[in-house]
Amino acid sequence: MAEKENWASVDQKTRSRHPKKWFEIAKLPIAPDNIYAAVVGRRMDLRLQHEQNRNVSQTSAVATRHDSPTMERNGRSIANSQPVSGGVSARLGSNGTLQHAATNPKTDGRTATADAAGIDSAGRMDGSISVDCQRGDSNQLSNESVACEHSKSLVEGNGRLIEIVPGVFGNQKQLDVHRARQNLIDYLRGGKGAMARRIAALNTGYQDGILSTTLTWSFEHAWEKRRANTQLTAKTYENWCKDFAARGHYAPLKRQKDFSIKPWHPVALALRQRPQGSSKQWVYNQLVEQLGADSLPDYTNVCRWLTDKASQSDQDKGRYSGSQLRARRFYQHRTAEGLAPASLMHADGWNSHFTAPHPVTREFVTYEIWHARDVATRFVTKPGIGLTENWQVILKCVENFVRELGIPARVQTDSTKVVKGSDRFTKAVHSLEERLGMTWTHPVTVGNSQANGIAENFNTSYLDKRARELATYQNKNSMDELSFKRIRKLTHDMVKAAGAGNLLERDKLKKQIEKIGKGLVFESYEQAVAWIERIFNDYNDRPHAALPRVVDAVTGKRRHQTPREALQEHIAHGWEPVALAEHELIAEFRPHVTVTIRRDTVTPWGGMRYYHPVLATMNDKPVIVAYDLADYHHVWVKDLDGTPICTADFVEATRYHAMSAQMAEEEKRAKSALKRLDNKRDTVIDRIPGEVLTLEAIPANELPGMEIIAKKIEIRNEISPGMAATIPEDDRSRHLFWREWQSKAATGTAIPDSLRPFMSSYPNTAKFRSWEAFFNAGNTTPHSASGGAG
Predict the structure, then answer these.
(1) Kindly report the CA angle at 624 between 620 and 628, in degrees rounded to 5?
(2) Is 436 in a helix, a strand, or coil?
(3) Pick from 142, 5, 23, 154: which is nearest to 82 by CA?
(4) 267 to 260, 287, 293: CA distances (angstroms)
């Protein structure tokens, strides 16, 4: 191209500001055949590029190419060329690009102009070529032949439009084969010379690698199953043309799946929708039994229909329900972008997948752990821990959140009946929601655990995995069943040995549990609580995928923020919690109930009456009463608006006779019982035959039949004379005294005879029922009463 200034040319004026030069192809060093190949190849390149740019869908119709007298190149119009000599003409623009115009009788009068800057001496493409194609007849040339599964398309065949029925191109592979064959046939038809020569030149050009990009792609995709040495033959070319004439497209016929509905399809689908699950073999057997083998395909085809054709969504509808079905459906993901800390709190409960000591009896039980997290920072606060899911555990969880992050604007929990509709938390003037000024919400659909997925996932993705560190882990889906049974028996024996004071046996059993379970074993309730709080702190200090990425100050690598870092970042940017003072926390999180004043007193719980003179003027009026679970002496009375009225005192019940008289009667009865035991002992000794026994030298507990009597005598000797006088006088201390001895009896400690009447009669009293309900509601661990026997 550097010698183009020496080529013979003819100047031509144009309407644009750029003059044109025309060159005779016969006098140019580039062969006309290569020019023609470049023009056709470029035309196919543009066609493929145009098809790729369009978003070809399965429902698009065929697009036909309209003849245009001019085409745009780089924003400038290129006029149709005129042949100069030899049927081929060329012209050079002022921008230095060589342009050729060729006319070939084999192309039915079509002309093309190409930018020769992209053609080298070998005829290969190395740049952009502008194409201007024109047909001499009135028939339209198909630029794209796209047949879709669900639409009708039109393609050109022998100068006419042929309608292709829907479903011809079942997949992208068939469409690619059709386009590739169409490109090759268009190229061969537009060439010159014998068809056999053109086919041979095409095969040689592909082997030498000199074909254009489109022709190379077409040669490689024209066969559905092409081998490495596959070449185009005249017979194959003729077969392609016959197929197009008969079918209107070049794509090979493919057998399509039969999606018609058969009579046995609804029955098979209904059998697959059973909630207990149905194997394919069972479904097939039921179909044979109900419809007969003659009306059914074989077992393989039934399985293929269930696997490949039947809707999996329809099969799941009866098989699963509720949250299990929703887990297989579309879900709407959410983002915490724009949320500030404490704007939204998600809370949920988790029944622990491990066992730990009971706070009173020390037997191994599961815990109910309620945890709350801030959605904006994923920060998890200190949990509420109890033995069952009750309102005290949930209230403690919310209280811990308010202590650390302030009052949340919105709280979301699942639809547990402890919270939803409970006047302690919502839907009442004295509820926690109204007192703190927050909004309590639940999922719209009951059982939609995905709506509370942040807290729900915390149970399985973190708490369950950390629970596997313990030897007492007991998830039935993960823990070995036999090992679980062995550990459960050993923990029972361990608690029994600890209650009997056999510390060596307890330590021995603990080591066995650790060896079988290969994990930790808690010795007390306090150890379990400390471990739970520690893993919550660990969670707040590990990177979270929902938080932004930062550069680690230690390693220098990028990682996600930890919840604690995210919270500290908000604090650094000026965020402040809506905090409560300590006395406000205590007051707001006391249990609140609505009661009616009767006879100058209020009764918030279990028949316990509280009096204040101010209440005499408000009889038969409803008020709000707040009480302390740990202190029964006072309650706080408020009106329905929350305004304090007074602090009422507990009204102690008076006894029917003096305490000293009752204690004397109980002591008298106990002495009488011991005297009867002594008489029985003497009678047993008198019945022993022989004179060789020296009773003074033989311990009583070694005589036959004397073990029980000797044990009772030893217990009697260990009891101090003032034991009968140790029963407390006030109601609360007496109840704690009874619970203390009840716990000792559960661990194997014998109850003194002087206390047996009290231990058996006291549970039948109204005071016992009232105080027992009070302590059970508070879920508090009673402390040892002063003066109790040990």
Answers:
(1) 125
(2) helix
(3) 23
(4) 15, 7, 14
Spatial contact of 18 and 94, defined as CB atoms under 8 Å apart: yes
Length of the chain: 790
Residue whose tokens read 């579309």: 330
The Cα–Cα gap between 429 and 426 comes to 8
Whether the per-residue pLDDT at 43 is higher than 80: the answer is no
Who's near 155: CB < 8 A, 6+ residues apart?
62, 142, 145, 147, 161, 162, 164, 248, 249
Residue matched to tokens 């329905």: 640
Alpha-carbon span 446 to 85, nearest angstrom: 86
**What span, in angstroms and rounded, lies between the C-alpha atoms of 212 and 214?**
6
pLDDT tens per residue across span 594-623: 899 998 899 887 788 899 999 988 898 999
Q: What is the pLDDT of residues 485-521, one digit of tens each?
A: 899 899 989 988 888 888 898 889 989 999 998 999 9
**Location of structure tokens 């489109």:** 214
Structural tokens at position 112: 């093309």
> pLDDT tens for residues 616-639?
888 989 998 988 776 778 888 988
d(CA 423, CA 782): 28
C-alpha–C-alpha distance, residues 576 and 564, integer Å: 15
The reported pLDDT for the residue numbered 98 is 32
Which residues lie closer than 8 Å to 743 by C-beta, 6 or more apart?
Answer: 360, 361
Do 664 and 657 form a contact (C-beta atoms < 8 A)? no
How far is it, in rounded angstroms, from Cα 65 to Cα 146? 13
The residue assigned the tokens 């109980």 is: 666
Check residue 461 and report its DSSP letter.
I
E strand or H helix at 550, and its extent? strand 549-551
Q: Report how far residue 154's alpha carbon sits from residue 171's, in angstroms, rounded to the nearest whole number.
A: 18
Handedness of CA 492, 496, 497, 501 (dihedral sign): positive
Please give the C-alpha separations between residue 98 and each of 152, 159, 238, 460, 649, in angstroms, as whole numbers. Answer: 43, 34, 37, 71, 109
Give the sign of the dihedral formed by CA 104, CA 109, CA 110, CA 114.
Answer: positive
Res 445 pLDDT > 80: no
Report, as an integer, the average pLDDT of 337-344. 90
Residue 162: partners with Cβ closer than 8 Å, 6 or more residues away: 154, 155, 156, 248
Query: b/e per residue, 673-709, with b = 16+ CB within 10 A?
Result: eeeeeeeebeeeeeeeeeeeeeeeeeebeebeebeeb
Around Cβ 488, how many Cβ atoms within 10 Å? 14
Q: What is the pLDDT of residues 218-269, one digit of tens each?
A: 999 999 888 888 899 999 999 999 999 998 888 888 777 788 889 999 999 9
Candidates 93, 100, 95, 135; CA nearest to 119 is 100
Contact 186, 141 (CB under 8 A): no
Note the pLDDT of residue 781. 43
Q: Tell me the two tokens of residue 423.
A: 């006047």
Q: What is the number of helices (H) and of strands (E) in the chain?
A: 24, 24
Question: Cα(136)–Cα(142) distance, rounded to whole angstroms?
Answer: 15
| Contact (Cβ atoms closer than 8 angstroms) between residue 205 and residue 215 | yes
Q: Residue 572: pLDDT band by 50, 70, 90 thresholds?
A: very high
Please check whether residue 158 is in contact with residue 199, taking contact to mean a CB–CB distance below 8 angstroms.
no
Contact 44, 185 (CB under 8 A): no
Tokens of 232: 């185009």
